[in-house]
Amino acid sequence: MSEIFGIPTALLGSQLLVGLINGSFYAILSLGLAIIFGLLNIINFAHGAQYMMGAFVAWIGLTKFGINYWVSLLLAPILVGAVGVVLERTLLSRLYKLDHLYGLLLTFGLALIIEGVFRDQYGISGLSYDVPDALAGGVNLGFMFMPIYRGWVVVAALAVCFGTWFMIERTKLGAYLRAGTENPQIVQALGINVPLLITFTYGYGVALAAFAGVLAAPVFQVNPLMGSNLIIVVFAVVVIGGMGSILGSIVTGIGLGLIEGLTKVFYPEGSSVVVFVIMVIVLLVRPAGLFGKA
């Protein structure tokens, strides 16, 4: 069996794959957080609960209504994004002129409420969600066996992440979104509905979380705690990449996932804290984050 630095190649490859999969989830979730904070100045602590809701929409759709994975991949972001739109219009829109702390406290409370409702209905035991038939099985890469679904998760997450980056940074809609948050009066004077743009932005950020939830359902067990277990790491990713930085969230999410995977090989005891150690170092050297602006 071939080795690299004394580590079997199969073990190293499998942990890098796990790291890449985790990094894909970090990237897509931190991207949603970065969009909401960068364009709305709201720290969305309910993001983990909305990610969990996406997974549950897929599970309920399959078990109760026979809705397959591919339909859920489109339906869950729309439904959960619509819930986000209602929350933004009824609650969050009242906080935009206040300190960031108010938005954080409100979304933290919403996260607890949402999680509590699902815990009351489904308990905390994990619920299985089968991999779709089209993505079942795996591929022998020679040095390791890669499940096809894991590869799909990485491709889908990267496609959505870079598609979102392109929309915000390279299209007229993205220019309107950025201008509407920096100088809403001028944009409103040009005949553009700024409140509608802001609502769309929050709904899209929430939809990204739900999309990640559907992707995660066949990988992890669906349960009400799946979002709260992940959101702290995702917040660390956002801080390291730079609060509000779209590209920073994508690059940092994938990079930290790979570092976490390598740490599990070379120093397993430190794998659960390596992201936070990096966050501390980055904040000491560059408080605005790797890609952030002061």
Fold and architecture overview:
- This protein is mainly alpha-helical.
- It has a single domain, classed as ABC transporter involved in vitamin B12 uptake, BtuC (Orthogonal Bundle), CATH 1.10.3470.
- The chain is 70% helix and 3% strand.
- β3 (138-140) and β4 form a beta hairpin.
- It is globular, with a radius of gyration of 19 Å.
- 44% of the residues are buried.
- The mean pLDDT is 89.
Could you name the key traits of this structure?
single chain; mainly alpha; ABC transporter involved in vitamin B12 uptake, BtuC
In round numbers, the mean pLDDT is 89
CATH class group: Mainly Alpha
How do the helices and strands follow one another from N- to C-terminus?
EEHHHHEEHHHHHHH
Structural class: mainly alpha
Shape: globular
Strand line-up of the largest beta sheet: 1-2
User: Termini separation (Å)?
Assistant: 49 Å
CATH structural fold name: ABC transporter involved in vitamin B12 uptake, BtuC
What portion of the residues fall into strands of 2 or more residues?
under 5%
Largest sheet: 2 strands, antiparallel
